[in-house]
Task: inverse folding
């Protein structure tokens, strides 16, 4: 049978809390790697600062709206890459990224334009004949990409059941990369039949133009590279191919990275900077991808990236793979071949790209794809390490301030509430245990970094937690003044107090949530810890403080007025009622 309203079984509630603490600290000590300590922000542990200089697509100073858009995309990429607590500040045409830790390479990688394009592999490197007829499908602007060596329907190794698939392959799993085009072996290939009847020339009209970059030397290098490597003749003319191969050195930085035209063929290298490919015009681009997720394939024991297309992109991909079974398709990121898998079946729905991924590389590329391509190109102009000397001093000062505030709260509660003040101390200790474990786990799971504003949020939370205790204890003292015993006062006081506690904490959490949503930078750390502490306060008050008070009230020794501190309140209530009866004898006779 359920207990009356306001009465509980304290042991059950305390047992639930003990179980929560055991589970949290089991996760702290037996999961993850490294020390079981919270991850600190850049103002406490130091970090890395990378300065990115913007290159305008029209050669003029970057527009403010483009810089603002790039700043937001970079912020999403950086925090999605597991560098929570990063700060991005605009300084003229530069964006300065400051993040905890010393992984500068990870910060530099997020500044890539990350334009994804799907291109057909035109030339069979073994036979020298076209693998697929050159096409010029509608061009779309790109979005970032992923990498790998095979492509197949997501979560399946058999042809999709949602549509018909050409059965030209006995295996539903696509095979690996085609033999790439080497530097010298392919320059004397017999000319393949031209589907357009074009004559063998090395150029076709004026050289391609560049959409504009700030550096004139870079613009000239891009224009020269495009004139050779994106000449439409390279799709069919071995002389044009030879010239493009000679001009392309995979060991050197590619000036065309991110500047290739979608509606022209492309001669480019793979991501290992060893092999060359002849690719056709883009038939699908990254903006048609809805989501990209990094996952670990248990069956293949490797990291993969799962792509989800938008409706138009899904139709284009299904049509293309259905018509080109047995051919190869290349995935290019900023003009560089990431993967050139063979198409073994029509692919309808989600698509997996797998290959030589690590967890970090698959996650980084999936994040770039998810958050969009940058409207500007950036170069890394500065990369430096930030010292944490001042941060450590500030942390010590913050912890000292928090300790002093906590001590004052405890002294006040012991002086004013006596035994109930001891229960307040126990509740605060329980709250601290939960907070510490959650900070460690959040640092591992969502890469949350504790910074100075976060410490300030926890100091404010001490007052919020103590306020909940005060509301409960004062309600209980009101019941005792009315003549009830300690034991009978507890359930009645809890019923009246919990509504007030819920309302007060609800307002605090709402304020923290609004501040977190609207604020930027360090203020969000303050809002996050304030909101988290408010939730933990509710947990502690409901399943620790209230059950502890109920246990004390049921003990003959602990509930004595001289020990509980409620004796004076009880005596004051008796005197007050006696005075009321003396002042109103008519009510006494009635």
Result:
């Amino acid at each position: 049978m359920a207990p009356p309203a306001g009465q509980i079984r304290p042991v059950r509630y305390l047992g639930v809390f003990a179980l929560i603490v055991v589970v949290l600290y089991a996760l702290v000590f037996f999961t993850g790697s490294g020390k079981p300590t919270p991850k600190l922000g850049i103002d406490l542990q130091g970090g890395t600062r990378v300065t990115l200089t913007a290159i305008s697509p029209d050669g003029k100073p970057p527009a403010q709206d483009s810089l603002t858009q790039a700043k937001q995309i970079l912020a999403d990429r950086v925090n999605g890459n597991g560098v929570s607590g990063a700060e991005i500040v605009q300084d003229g045409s530069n964006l300065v990224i400051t993040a905890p830790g010393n992984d500068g390479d990870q910060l530099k990688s997020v500044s890539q334009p990350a334009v994804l394009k799907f291109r057909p592999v035109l030339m069979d490197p073994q036979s020298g004949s076209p693998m697929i007829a050159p096409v010029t499908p509608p061009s779309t602007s790109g979005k970032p990409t992923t990498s790998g060596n095979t492509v197949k329907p997501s979560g399946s190794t058999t042809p999709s059941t949602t549509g018909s698939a050409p059965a030209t392959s006995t295996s539903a799993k696509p095979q690996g990369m085609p033999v790439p085009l080497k530097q010298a072996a392919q320059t004397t290939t017999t000319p393949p039949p031209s589907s357009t009847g074009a004559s063998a020339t090395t150029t076709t009209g004026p050289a391609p133009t560049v959409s504009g970059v700030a550096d004139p030397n870079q613009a000239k290098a891009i224009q020269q590279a495009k004139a050779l490597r994106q000449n439409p003749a390279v799709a069919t003319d071995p002389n044009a191919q030879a010239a493009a191969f000679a001009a392309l050195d995979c060991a050197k930085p590619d000036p065309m990275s991110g500047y290739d035209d979608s509606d022209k063929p492309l001669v480019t290298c793979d991501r290992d900077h060893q092999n060359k490919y002849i690719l056709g015009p883009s038939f699908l681009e990254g903006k048609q991808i809805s989501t990209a997720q990094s996952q670990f394939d248990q069956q293949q024991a490797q990291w993969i990236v799962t792509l989800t297309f938008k409706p138009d992109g899904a139709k284009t991909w299904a049509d293309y793979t259905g018509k080109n079974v047995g051919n190869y398709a290349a995935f290019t990121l900023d003009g560089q071949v990431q993967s050139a898998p063979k198409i073994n079946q029509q692919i309808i729905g989600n698509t997996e790209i797998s290959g030589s991924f690590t967890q970090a590389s698959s996650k980084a590329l999936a994040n770039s794809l998810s958050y969009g391509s940058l409207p500007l190109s950036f170069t890394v102009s500065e990369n430096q390490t930030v010292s944490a000397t001042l941060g450590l001093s500030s942390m010590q000062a913050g912890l000292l301030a928090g300790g002093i505030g906590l001590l004052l709260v405890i002294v006040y509660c012991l002086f004013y509430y006596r035994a109930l003040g001891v229960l307040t101390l126990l509740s605060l200790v329980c709250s601290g245990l939960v907070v510490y474990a959650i900070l460690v786990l959040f640092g591992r799971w969502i890469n949350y970094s504790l910074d100075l504003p976060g410490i300030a949020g926890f100091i404010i939370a001490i007052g919020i937690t103590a306020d909940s205790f005060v509301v409960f204890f004062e309600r209980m003292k009101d019941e005792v003044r009315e003549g009830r015993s300690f034991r009978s006062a507890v359930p009645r006081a809890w019923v009246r107090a919990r509504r007030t506690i819920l309302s007060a904490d609800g307002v605090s959490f709402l304020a923290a949530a609004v501040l977190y949503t609207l604020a930027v930078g360090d203020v969000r750390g303050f809002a996050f810890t304030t909101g988290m502490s408010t939730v933990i306060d509710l947990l502690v008050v409901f399943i620790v403080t209230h059950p502890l008070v109920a246990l004390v009230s049921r003990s003959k020794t602990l509930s004595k007025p001289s020990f509980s501190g409620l004796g004076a309140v009880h005596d004051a209530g008796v005197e007050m009622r006696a005075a009321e009866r003396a002042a109103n004898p008519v009510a006494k006779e009635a």
Remarks:
- Residues 486-518 form the longest helix (33 residues).
